[in-house]
Amino acid sequence: MNTAIQPRIQLLDPSLANRIAAGEVVERPAAVVKELLENALDADARNIRIDLEEGGIRLIRVRDDGCGILPDDLALALRRHATSKLTSFDDLIAVRTLGFRGEALPSIASVSRLRLTSRTREADAGWRVETDGSESIAAPGPAAHPQGTTVEVRELFFNTPARRKFLRTAKTEFRHAEETVRRIALGHPDVAISLSHHDRAVLNLQGDASEAGTMARIAEICGPAFMEESLPIVSDATSLRVWGRMGLPTFSRAQADLQYFFVNGRVVRDKLITHAVRQAYQDVLYHGRHPAYVLFLEMSPDGVDVNVHPTKHEVRFRESRLIHDFLFRALHRAIADVHPGVMLDKTPGQWTMDGRRSLPLSGRHGGGSGRSGASGGEKDPLPTSAETGFEAFRVSEVQSDYDASAPAHGARGQDHRVLLSRQTPGSPPGMVADTTDSPHRDQIGGVWADAPPLGHAIMCLHGIYILAQNDRGLVIVDIHAAHERIVYERLKRGAAEQGIRSQPLLLPVNLNVSRIEADLVEERADEFMALGIEVRRTGPDAISVRQIPIMLRDTDAASLVRDVISDFTVTGMSSRVAEKRDQLLATMACHGALRGKKSLIAVEMNALLRDIESTERAGQCNHGRPTWIQLDMDELDRLFLRGR
Length: 644
Ligand code: ADP
Ligand code: MG
Prior knowledge:
Elements: H1 14-25, H2 29-42, E1 47-53, E2 59-64, H3 71-77, H4 89-93, H5 104-110, E3 113-119, E4 126-131, E5 141-143, E6 148-154, H6 161-164, H7 170-186, E7 192-197, E8 200-205, H8 211-222, H9 224-228, E9 230-237, E10 240-247, E11 259-263, E12 266-267, H10 271-281, E13 293-299, E14 304-305, E15 316-317, H11 320-336, E16 393-394, H12 399-405, H13 416-421, H14 439-444, E17 456-461, E18 465-470, E19 473-478, H15 479-498, E20 502-512, H16 515-523, H17 525-530, E21 534-539, E22 542-549, H18 557-571, H19 576-592, H20 602-613, E23 628-632, H21 633-639
Parallel strand pairs: 1-7, 9-16, 11-13
Antiparallel strand pairs: 1-2, 2-6, 3-4, 3-6, 4-5, 7-8, 9-10, 10-13, 11-12, 14-15, 17-18, 18-19, 19-23, 20-22, 21-22
Helix pairs in contact: 1-5, 2-7, 7-8, 10-11, 15-19
This protein binds adenosine-5'-diphosphate and magnesium ion.
Adenosine-5'-diphosphate binds at residues 35, 39-40, 43, 64, 66-69, 77, 82-85, 99-105, 149.
């Protein structure tokens, strides 16, 4: 023990305690905007207006027309752990509001000059309280205000210069705040939200709870390109539903900046979810690229714990493995099922708001066709999802929904291609079957009345491309890329059918790991075995690898096992062996695929076209490049300025 004075324990001054709490919740103007916006949404506001000055550093004002706060409660709203949203522990188990900790307003009030004005529905006048960073709050006084609440936050961090120094330029802070508003707005299409900076309108979003409104909101936040290059998805399980739009693999991005995930309307960034989505896109994405998506997970609130982190961005699922598998399977299936057959009925034009019509002409490559394009506007007879109302692609697990409600395949007036495109994997996709009612068929004179989706080969261009004619126009296929995908999928299927066979290592590989990791290995020995890995605990913090999958015999057993352990730790499961195996198969496929400048004869070309049609994920090669593109007659006409 040294000779310094013995430290004593004392209670923190409440205003200091608030500022420390503020450190967790409020690190920049965007965080204030998030909390105020969420409060307005919790108050059931229909219209929310956000005004910022100097990126929010000088002023953040959020005005709503929600339920308001009673005059007697105004001062209380600024006190720590005062909330109207929870009363018991049971409430905490199934929180439905965005806030519940009662920390945001006091935290913000402790680092700014805050003014809270509110009027409830019954009241005939508004009331206001003001604070200037200190604990003392003067009694509320009357103030003119319509029904709802306005929170004004001025001079953020004026009394905490250390924190203020960490702020960036007003422009940067504004960008963060705007992104926050966009993110939250995406999850609440029913609420009108506007944002302005120095009185300049930046966002002006109409509130509309209908499916059209939701599509409009997604379009406004994510942009038209995303709408064109994404497909709607809906998938249900007993108590889970995921819906939204998934960017096509070819619409991947250099940054993970177009990824929006909501759990029961709450913006969430979660490792488990990111992992499931990444895995679903795995092997159709270029290495280092990020998928784009807007996905909404709906589940019972008591299945998810939102009380994990002060900003509530992280959540904990009670049945994490189930959620992971559900998401992975739904999304993976959706990506796998992007077949050429689905795109042929695309009516040129808009991704209209009703989400049922088709996509525009651009983005017309192998992956560039949306499921939404598969249905034909008003005449679409298929059932729509009752809850979202979207005429969206549904994964095979819910195939029975269609079987029950859609007329038998081939019935009159039915759009075959829609049905065909929804076939379960393994059955041939929509190829030759559709010969009726195509508006294009008559135009072209019925010559290709039996044309399969990718049509018939006309010629092989320089041994690199196949040119084919289908009823829409010209199809161009990259021979190597397409063949590579086909070989790869075949190899994978073979591997899956045979299961993972493993073989003993000549010499066991001994590894030192942490005690926790050794525990994990011991507890999950069976699961390792299911992956073809035999690994035993040999000491408190030592393990020994005895056996690994035959296919991976040339990989480093130690790093494989370490990776699998960390997968188990992070996500509760490991897809490492499958991933490694797939990587290996991909390399083999690339070597096994037809390589440049081999001229193909007609039979070979047509066989390849048919193979593409019946192969999963055939729209992209293993590296995420498109394998084929479609040029429609009217696109060609436009190139030649015909009909102008
Ligand atoms: P929390 O949202 O976790 O309850 P806050 O500190 O954000 O905590 O808000 C405290 C309380 O103030 C809320 O529980 C709510 O009763 C009230 N409140 C805050 N903002 C609003 C608003 N815009 N409209 C109505 N009530 C509000
Ligand atoms: Mg709150």
